[in-house]
Amino acid sequence: MSLGAYIIYIALLLIIPLWAQSKVKSTYKKYSKVETSSLMTGAQVARKILDDNGIYDVQIEETRGLLSDHYDPRHKVVRLSSSNYHGHSMAAAAVSAHEVGHAIQDAEGYGFLKFRTALAPAAAWGNNLSFFLIIAGAIFGALSLVGWGIALFSIAVLFQVVTLPVEFNASNRAMTQLVSTGVIRNDEERATKKVLNAAAMTYVAAALVAVAELVRFILMFFVGGNED
Predict the structure, then answer these.
(1) Residues annotated as part of the active site
(2) What pLDDT score does 209 carry?
(3) Which of the four pLDDT bands, split at 50, 70 and 90, describes residue 226?
(4) Domain limits, the chain
(5) What is the pLDDT of residues 156-184, one digit of tens each?
(6) What H or E segment, with its residue span, contains residue 173?
(7) For the chain, percent helix, then strand, then coil, each to nearest 5?
(8) Which of 30, 57, 60, 136 has a CA-to-CA distance to 105 between 20 and 30 Å?
(9) What is the mean pLDDT of residues 101-119?
């Protein structure tokens, strides 16, 4: 890869995630100012959807940070950032319903969620160690280290790829639940989808970057092997 092509490649790796993050933040900011017709807070939305689906063992907690919302399958907790926990907005409803979508997945034993949860520890280790091994292998000319680094990084990439169906499925569940429970009206669906779709782009961007990096490492490994 020429220097110019490499610079373009690195620029794309930086631009794609930044664009996705910018998109989700601007969309969230816009619809955090638009209240739902039901005027339910995010916490109330989450509790209603959970109860309507017969899920009573999942707690709802407020957490710090902006867009730090998540579902913790180990402790059965939906954690909502303060703005979403207390907010009455379209954004708060969408994000809260999405996180509850993960709780419903967990209750139903959704396969991709179970696989992602089981893969998470190995993916974290793989992501942390792979670059050290690849860099060390490249510096010392030890292709075996590069190979091990690629193998570990592959686990982290697999985690990113498996995350996609988990997140899209949670968003689909969120839309269905928001409408069926009466949290939003039919004419509010479009705005809700915009929030959910913008959030989904961050996962797509992360997966694209991870796959691109894996391909680069694999090419580096084979080119280095051929030069020997």
Answers:
(1) 99
(2) 92
(3) low
(4) 3-36+90-97+109-227
(5) 999 999 999 999 999 999 999 999 999 99
(6) helix 143-180
(7) 75, 5, 15
(8) 30
(9) 97
- Note whether 27 and 198 are within 8 A (CB): yes
Annotate 125-151 with DSSP letters as a single string: HHHHHHHHHHHHHHHHT-HHHHHHHHH
Q: Take residue 58 and report the two structure tokens written for it.
A: 């999942």
Q: Which residue is it, tokens 């670059």?
A: 131
Closest CA to 75 of 49, 103, 98, 109: 103
Indicate the pLDDT class of residue 61, thresholds 50, 70 and 90: very high
Which phi and psi (to 5°) does residue 39 adopt?
A: 55, 30
Return the structure tokens found at 117. Answer: 């949860």
Residue 82's region, left for phi above 0, alpha for psi from -120 to 50, else beta, is alpha
Share of the chain above pLDDT 90, in %: 81
Q: Which two tokens stand for residue 156?
A: 């982290």
CA angle 127, 130, 131 (to 5 degrees): 100
Q: Token pair for residue 197? A: 């779709």
Contact 76, 56 (CB under 8 A): no
CB 94 within 8 Å of CB 178: yes
- What pTM was computed for the model? 0.89
- Contact between residue 78 and residue 57 where contact means Cβ atoms under 8 Å apart: no
Which helix or strand (DSSP H or E) is residue 71 part of?
A: strand 70-72
Question: What is d(CA 219, CA 72) in angstroms, rounded to the nearest whole number?
Answer: 37
